[in-house]
């Protein structure tokens, strides 16, 4: 169980409104990712749900029960903090056992649950260590372990991987997805990482200055962004946005073409461009080109492509992959 | 030339500081620097300095306790240059005796004191008694019990109880003299195991228990003074200087009801009063002996008494040093306790303080270097007896052990 | 940071402090040690002679010796208990939202700025005096018999005075430590269902343990040397009830002017202090490395 | 934790905290109040309303020159603090940034030098001071207090310095700074809060040091502790006067403490944070 | 000038040898990147060059001059630390001016140089701010500014971007490359980020436990890794390494195929596999497939690919893109 509904929820700190009236429905078992620029209110929203902040107005219900005024401990949610917030003086075992101990469980029950969780998370060998003696990824897993032992109605993750290095992030990403598959518990996950958002989410909520810009599956957002903000925010490298004559030709104020949807040729194409910096990743090459009045474009090309700085290339956007936006920034 | 003077912070000394313009006017080439400290700190300071020849002071305020010891060590300059008009013969003989060695004066008394009984005439009357001029301890005890009215917050008698060689031991040693006790026999054998001491202490503890104020074991001069001034004591046996405080209407609520009597005795020939003088001495190491002598002469001379009298009245003149003062009718008028004070002083003899013979000098102390520490230790034990934390016998036994120990160490007991 | 150059330099930079402190330690220590083997009374300087271990024996056989050691420990432990427990309670209270927090904090830390003799005088004369003290006034107001603090509870009274002086210090350190507790940890515990008490036991206490260590260490060093308060209030009595080691040495040194005996006492005190410090470091020292 | 705190709770805490704070502050407050009473008032029983007489202050001032003592206190406290910092900063630098196995032991040893009871070494020190002509000199006392407090200063600085990332000093080194430049331009300014609070604590400790300051001075260098010693327990009534003197003696440091309270709070942690 | 030579340099801390004997030659103007797993000694090597650590043995020369015993300040190198190590109490201006001040330059000269550097780095408007008032990217630029004013013989960067978020990293990466183009000063750059290493380096040095595994251009490492370690380390997602029969068929103990070099088809191919987790990034899809005894493989497929969990697909490695390794782990 873990159906979470936000009804006209808003939040202000003093006179600054961080979140204007907002409605959101999260279904049981869903993996929802909140994305948005820094400071847009992602953490605040999560903390409202957790009960760590009071709402200024509106109603939050979990499984139909109004929890707006309830203390965090009562909401049966588990949270994994960005900083992990492990208890530094307790061993891994005690960290994981802590919520159970607080719930007054039997020592035997606790032991079993902790050991189970540790097995799932590959922490069995580290149970006697202190958090200070663990690597970042291991700490992360302890934080998750502490969350899962309680079988909460939902998990809340606040940028849990942002402190890890790239390799570890990849691994942890998979582990969390795996966990979601196993437990089938609702998860709400805040991140600013494209890859995490795209690969993990059932549903992405794009926030901007406290407003929900769009809600949808990753592919929906990728393929049909509702407005310029979402278009620019989802996808990496970011979508090329073109104004002026080139856009007008497609009957729009702005058109957007993703770097991976620009065909490249040394002979002919819609836009003529000069190659600037070429970033060779081996698997791909990102070309930053100067396309006259169309502006600077980023193109993703094959890793083997052998173009050089200053060469001329021709670009053609895949016709059915062009996104068109009106003067108000909304998709047409 | 600047001379540095160490003084104790009591009222008379402070007053002298304020009056030094007179001295500097007469001796324009001498500047005075003052170091004023409370009694215990002062004693530590000057003793450390003189014993290590630190040379920080040119004039030191010292008590009758230090003078004989220091004189013996030749740390003090004999005062033979005090000037023609100084009139050393005028100094009360009992006082001068305590400050001299081999017939030479080693410190000039600034003021002197003994102790006597101060009592409330009104309460005495209420109790249906009349205080004789020379009461016995028996009478005092009886009066104290009769005057005590705990409901009205009146204690029959207030006595020192705070531990310390100059606190409770000053009083108790003087008292013990009148009971025929002594600190040491002629072979320096401590005498706390003798019945005289037992009588003294038992008497004191019983009396205080029945007629003394609460918290007596931490009361010293000041505490008792405050109690008496507020009308909470029927009698108080303490320094004669207290008389000017308790009879001063500005501070005292009972100023007009105070009577005075000699310290009590038991008929053995010694009274329970002490003798003390704060005196000015000049350390042997000073480079400025001449200026220092000039100052000492000024501060302890007759002229100074007149100066104070003219500026602040006769009542504020430092008492207890000169016979001429007590013959002065103006002073007698201003200080109703004058005669009693002089009698008290004269009835103490530092060279023969006790009933039985002793090898030491000093009425309420033993003028040996070891006494301060030993006295304080014994004082602690006695105050514990007063506080009810140990029995009189235990306190005396403890005192005896401590004394034997200390005296053996110091080589008095062979 | 670990090049040969810098570590050589480091040794150079340490040198002034180490040398100064070494001299500061060794010269008086050596002189004290020397004096401790002498019969030397300050008032009888002509009579100095070699005493062997006699001074030590004399000091050690002082009837007040064992009680003074016991009192020293009671004083240190008592003050530590009051300041640490009181400091934690105060720090917790001051950490709460309230009106006029700044002023409250100022009031609470003020005793730290009061010179020890002044503190002792004020407490003795105006607070605890059985006749005029505020406590007595209150007792009388409620019709009770005023307590004669310094006669009935001498050591305890001194503990109170000293604790009053050191409570602000403990409070300040603990308060800062409290405020440094990671907010997210508290929130995590809250999400884990921990109530106020559990959070205090499982989070706060372990978190401030290092600060407590600092408090204990620094205060112990100062408390081992307390004597001014005793001198002003009880003079070590009644009996030996409030005589601690420094006071005993004081008695020997500045009342008896027995330099030899006091030196022996000083050496004994140093040895005892170092034993205490050793156990202290063993007990709490590892907290410092965290 | 930014949930609304109900006003009622806040008022509750406010009341509790004020009560406790006033209780703790009471002895000081009462001293100040008493200093404005006459002597008879002072022993006349509990009263928070003084008659407001300044007579005690007048007497205190008449008896001794407060300002001279005050000046000595300032010079000695501040002087010894600065001196201690000058010596301690380099030492703390070495311990924090170039630690060896023995660093901890050295620190502990330094602290242990404070364990010698002052009374026991009075005679040796007095002799040393006498022979070096330092008795009753400000410089002698300043050096003395510097030595007494040096261990604490080194320790505090060490804990502060340890929190400064070594990389910044390395950066300075890469930027061509000499050791001197590194300490003067980078380390010291960065450690200002820590140094400030170390200074404050040290000034307080030096200001309140009441053994040596009395025993080693006579007139020229005597600070406020000696001033107080001339007012405690003379004959006669003295509580109002003592209160006035006490108020005068603690007022400067109290006021300084109040103003620098924030610094002090930050500083006194000895790196207890983290 | 900025030719740096390491000759038989080694480093031990106490008894642990972090860097066994190592030779390295860095040419003037080169952009060299050190990569390797965490703890392999990258930072240590950099610090040895900088003079912040003593070598245990060996010789370091800069421009032919032996600097082994010289103090850092004398080596004319500039270092940008991972944490930036800005002077928090100085303004941006003063931070940048600091090395010049230490060198005893004229105030006027300093002013000119600082302003020039600020212009290049787009910091002109921030000169009066303190580091605490700057965003991560701006701080980064100040750190670089402090390094470039001195015109050092070489720059040393220790993971300078690892603290930044993804977007900023991209921007900063370009800026540093740009700078290298302009200044043409030797740069040594430590990173654990694939993209940075591949796109910025002229030459990559792959370290493993203090040993140099391979030195070469990014494309060289990508195309012809010398051994299994390099093969696994360079490229993202990492190369699929296959042992056993499938490898033996190519005459090797192990063969490696990069995810982007696996053709995918629903009908036929060399290896039959079942689709596991599919990570949809929009632009690409990473399929984690289970290919029988070949093992688990990662395949990079087109973003639009519509395969589902559990479906069967067929994979074919591009034949000329197969890397073959012998029993000793070396490339054959
Ligand atoms: N207690 C507070 N008081 C005032 N403003 C606050 C408070 N907490 C957060 N804010 C403001 O609310 C806004 C949203 O903050 P929030 O932490 O939710 O952002 P975020 O989306 O999580 O950003 P990031 O990705 O950087 O973590 C920010 O502008 C922040 O400054
Ligand atoms: N001062 C030191 N004393 C002992 N060992 C050290 C010291 N400094 C570093 N090490 C060890 O040397 C090894 C290499 O450290 P180094 O910092 O060079 O790694 P790195 O490659 O930079 O790793 P990372 O990518 O995590 O920064 C590590 O195992 C580390 O524990
Ligand atoms: Mg956030
Ligand atoms: Mg590193």
UniProtKB/TrEMBL annotation, chains A, E:
Top-level division of the source organism's lineage: Bacteria
SUPFAM superfamilies reported in the protein's UniProt record: MOP-like, P-loop containing nucleoside triphosphate hydrolases
Location within or outside the cell: Cell inner membrane
Keywords on record: ATP-binding, Hydrolase, Nucleotide-binding, Sugar transport, Transport
Database matches in Gene3D superfamilies: 2.40.50.100, Nucleic acid-binding proteins, P-loop containing nucleotide triphosphate hydrolases
Single Gene Ontology MF annotation: ABC-type maltose transporter activity
The keyword Transmembrane helix belongs to this UniProt entry's keyword annotation: no
Membrane topology: Peripheral membrane protein
Keyword Cell wall biogenesis/degradation appears in the UniProt entry: no
CDD domains for this protein: ABC_MalK_N
ABC transporter domain boundaries: 4-234
GO cellular component, one term: maltose transport complex
Enzyme class: hydrolase
EC numbers, comma separated: 3.6.3.-
Similarity comment: family membership: Belongs to the ABC transporter superfamily.
Name the UniProt record assigns to this protein: Multiple sugar transport system ATP-binding protein
Taxon lineage: Bacteria, Pseudomonadati, Pseudomonadota, Alphaproteobacteria, Hyphomicrobiales
Automatic annotation (TrEMBL), chain C:
One annotated Gene Ontology cellular component of this protein: plasma membrane
Domain named ABC transmembrane type-1: residues: 69-280
GO biological process: transmembrane transport
Signal peptide range in chain numbering: none
Primary localization: membrane
InterPro entries tied to this protein: MetI-like, MetI-like_sf
UniProtKB keywords: Cell membrane, Membrane, Transmembrane, Transmembrane helix, Transport
Membrane topology of this protein: Multi-pass membrane protein
Keyword Transport (UniProt): yes
Transmembrane stretches, start-end: 12-37, 69-94, 106-123, 155-178, 208-228, 248-281
Family as reported in the entry's similarity comment: Belongs to the binding-protein-dependent transport system permease family.
Name under which the protein is recorded: Sorbitol/mannitol transport system permease protein
Organism in which the protein naturally occurs: Aminobacter aganoensis
Lineage: Bacteria, Pseudomonadati, Pseudomonadota, Alphaproteobacteria, Hyphomicrobiales
UniProtKB/TrEMBL annotation, chain D:
Record's keyword annotation contains Transmembrane helix: yes
Superkingdom of origin: Bacteria
Annotated organism of origin: Aminobacter aganoensis
Biological process according to GO: transmembrane transport
PANTHER family from the UniProt entry: INNER MEMBRANE ABC TRANSPORTER PERMEASE PROTEIN YCJP, MALTOSE TRANSPORT SYSTEM PERMEASE-RELATED
Protein name in the entry: Sorbitol/mannitol transport system permease protein
Cellular component GO terms, alphabetical: plasma membrane
Location of the protein in the cell: Cell membrane
Pfam families cross-referenced by the UniProt entry: BPD_transp_1 (PF00528)
Keywords: Cell membrane, Membrane, Transmembrane, Transmembrane helix, Transport
